[in-house]
Amino acid sequence: MVDVVASAHGRVNLIGEHTDYNGGFVLPTLIPQSTTVRLTRRDDRRVRLRSANVEGAFEYMLGEEAPRQAWIDYVQGVTKFLAEAGHRLVGFEAVVESTVPIGSGLSSSAALEVSTMRALRDAFGIELDAVSMALIGRRAENDFVGAQTGVMDQMAASLADLGKALFLDTRAMTYELVRLPPGSELIVLNSGVAHQHAHGDYNTRWRECQDAAKALGVPQLRDLTAADLGRVNALPEPLNRRARHVVTEDERVLEAVAAMRAGDLPRLGELFYASHASMRDDYVVSVPEVDLIVELARAEPDVYGARLTGGGFGGSVVMLAKEGSARAVAQRVAARYAQQSARTPTVLVP
Fold it and tell me: What amino acid positions are annotated as catalytic residues?
């Protein structure tokens, strides 16, 4: 008999990419796809996990968590750091079901972490607020799984809302919800190119940002503004380009929030395109397939802007379109992309 059912949504980041682990600003919103955990309590220390999406089951003992290079590691990280935070757990069995596509740049891992913590909170009477859940989720991602992500994904899964963006200062951990502008619709198109954050280039970008901040004599790249771009540009390659992306992306987030509040859709779209160009050229996290989707979107008169969303190296594109046009635009872009790339795209929103 299932004791608790809990869910958390995936997210799409409107703008503010690779700024969160640099102490900067982000602007994610939720997507309809979600992860659900159905949890049953046990009377011992054993945890048994099964996914409704993939074959196979996993077991481990609380207090004996060890990485296995599988999706279970996100749950193991959660139970490990909940215990370290002083929360008492006993064993449980859980079935996980998700409609958030893995490797799509839409934060399937944070949806799993937050839905798991919501289930554990309700099953065991743990006092755990949304921000605490986000911080524990980030620890699971950073210190157990090994991906040096920021806190944006977990904060979005914990606090964002459908139809509203979470304007988050990841250093101060202050946030507010900003309504998406009237007259617009979002499109999210998965390129079919999967990424994997725990390995390779993602963590390399994190290290490059640390090196750039150290070379510039600041604790984090967040401490720089557009007035510092002269010093930033004088850094050796590729640190100059990595830092330039972060500094200009923080500025773009602030401008995007102002554009949303003013209902200035053309300006918001321009910022989307500028963000993508920066991620492609300065941060070098895009791939040809994603660039193709952005260019196909640019050819659509009903699209204000488009950009790579998520950590990059594959994943999805978010587009800002005129209200009433999103479904038709998404289908046209997906069809042209499939024809030109030999990839199978998926329209996730609308």
Answer: 153
3-class state of residue 274 by DSSP: helix
Residues in CB range of 42: below 8 A, 6 or more apart: 90, 91, 92, 93
Looking at the DSSP bridge assignments, the partners of residue 38 are: 5, 95
Question: What's the burial of 44, exposed, middle or buried (CB within 10 Å: 0-12/13-18/19+)?
Answer: exposed
Query: Which 8-state DSSP code applies to residue 64?
Result: -
**Could you give the domains of the chain?**
4-177 (3.30.230.10), 183-349 (3.30.70.890)
What is the value of pTM for the model shown? 0.92
Distance (Å) of CA 21 to CA 25, 174, 236: 10, 15, 21
Instruction: Report helix angle 239-262 to 265-281, nearest 10.
Output: 170
* Structure tokens belonging to residue 199: 């390995």
Cα–Cα dist 34/98, whole Å: 6
d(CA 231, CA 326): 42
Please answer whether residues 106 and 316 qualify as being in contact, where contact means their C-beta atoms are separated by less than 8 angstroms. yes
pLDDT in tens, the chain (350 residues): 789 999 999 999 999 999 999 999 999 999 999 999 999 999 999 999 999 988 889 999 999 999 999 999 999 999 999 999 999 999 999 999 999 988 777 889 999 999 999 999 999 999 999 999 999 999 999 999 998 888 999 999 999 988 899 999 999 999 999 999 999 999 999 999 987 554 568 889 999 999 999 999 999 999 999 999 999 999 999 999 999 999 999 999 999 999 999 999 999 999 999 999 999 999 999 999 999 999 999 999 999 999 999 889 999 999 999 999 999 999 999 999 999 999 999 999 99
CA distance 334 to 347: 7
DSSP state of 202: H
The vertex-250 CA angle with 246 and 256, nearest 5°, equals 135
